[in-house]
Amino acid sequence: MRSEIDYSVYLVTARDLLPVGKHYLESLEESLQGGVTVVQLREKTIDTGEFIQIAQSTKAICDKYNTPLLINDRIDVALAIDCAGVHVGQSDAPLAVARRLLGPNKVIGVSAGNIDQAIAAQKGGADYLGIGAIYGTQTKDVSNKIMGPAGARAVLAALDPHSPIKTVVIGGIKSDNVLRVLHGVHFRDTKRYLDGVAVVSDIVSSPRPRKATENLARLVQAFRNNENTKPEPAINDIDSVLNKVSEIINAIPDQSPLIQQMANIVTANDQANATLALGASPVMAAVVGDQKDLNPHIGALLINMGTVSDEQKRAMLAGGRYSNINKKPLIFDPVAVGATSFRRETGKELLSHWHPTVIKGNAAEIGALSGLNEVTTKGVDSVGPGFKDPYLVVRSLANRERCVVVMTGKDDYISDGERTAKISNGHQLLGQITGSGCVTGTAIATCCAVASMTEGDMNKDGKLTTGDHFIASIAGVLALEISAEIASTRNDVRGPNTFRSAWIDEMSNLDKIDLSKMSRVIVA
Ligand SMILES: Cc1ncc(COP(=O)(O)OP(=O)(O)O)c(N)n1
Ligand SMILES: Cc1nc(C(=O)O)sc1CCOP(=O)(O)O
Q: What pTM value is reported for the model?
């Protein structure tokens, strides 16, 4: 009988990466005590005799903990010690040969660096796929095959949903990014979960491998608990939504969250002033050196790609990563993401490094991220009447990216994949000033910060952030559009520039407004 393997925390060994003074078998045993569920012995430089010896001593310890052992590349070694099976790469013994030599009762895992390799291994009867590399790593040169969580998600999506094949990801996975990876890879449409994460250095290089393994195991389990828990019924009747919106907007001055914004040079000043007017505090820190120390203190981070430079991009990568680690809402404004290849690449790189809580863009930006060309761009603006089915566009992207998507325009569409809202507030003067979309990002970030600070969650360990960010996004959009409507009626407004000042003034008066009376929102 082929062993039923639990792939949750899959250790791939590397004796050359052990900390000075740590013995291989001691480290292995500690990691098994910490919760490693399957081990792969990976040796690249030793001769066959020594390989068999190490494999025997590795198997003795694995047996003590009832943990299956696989051998990297070497079918002969696996046969010699009669372990659970092997892992083979694309340039090792072909799967069919490995199966013939090992027989039906051994487990065979195959490396998959792309969809074609994954499908071939699935059709060939592999028991599991090692999908990677997710990120770069010092352990092995994988620079030509880094796919990010989105690449692994595409592999999962391409697999036959009825196939029993299991999947793990590998490459640069550590306790500080494992939740982000699991959230980014899980393929919602077919409900195909990853079966585990394969890790080398995060465990092997640690002086405390037991603790390192416990951390990984706890996060993998927390993610699963979160996915398997039936969520509380989401608020979606319009009265409850608008009540919640008012609660969030009115709580901004009490909570006074610090809103970090990597803004663009055209609109940064308006964004900072809008933050203050809403009752929050802006911090426009956009250099790498600030990110680690600042991140624990912020309520949310807004990343706006409008005038992104190489230095700012590095800060965006780091700031977003810390936001995922510290469970801070991360709002991504992919300004003009489809306009140039540099912007397309930058958007892709950012989304591969961290997981956004909300993506906010105009129709052209949301279309570019969705891979649709129905709506085109002119500079930073969207051209034409928009999508035929905007509900479907936002819902699909929200499902794919597992986040809230806000598509702004004459009508705004917001979806978390389950619920979708249409907002028809706003004023045409918003289209005559630069940066109204960027300031909308500021308001969404502010409302998401409040939602996250005020709403607890039983399953927060398995989440990247807490709070109902669908409703917070509605709150952010309404806050801006209703203040614009009120500003537009003021006698002192003579055109776009006076409107801009009045608009920011009115953001600070929202507590005096009955938002439910002015809101034009439908939730489907
Ligand atoms: C679980 C898992 N996935 C992928 C690999 C990589 O295997 P391979 O492509 O054979 O490369 P080497 O490990 O031989 O360098 C793996 N070992 N484990
Ligand atoms: C052995 C291996 N194979 C990879 C692949 O992508 O096929 S990445 C990798 C090394 C992973 O090491 P770490 O957990 O230290 O990043």
A: 0.90
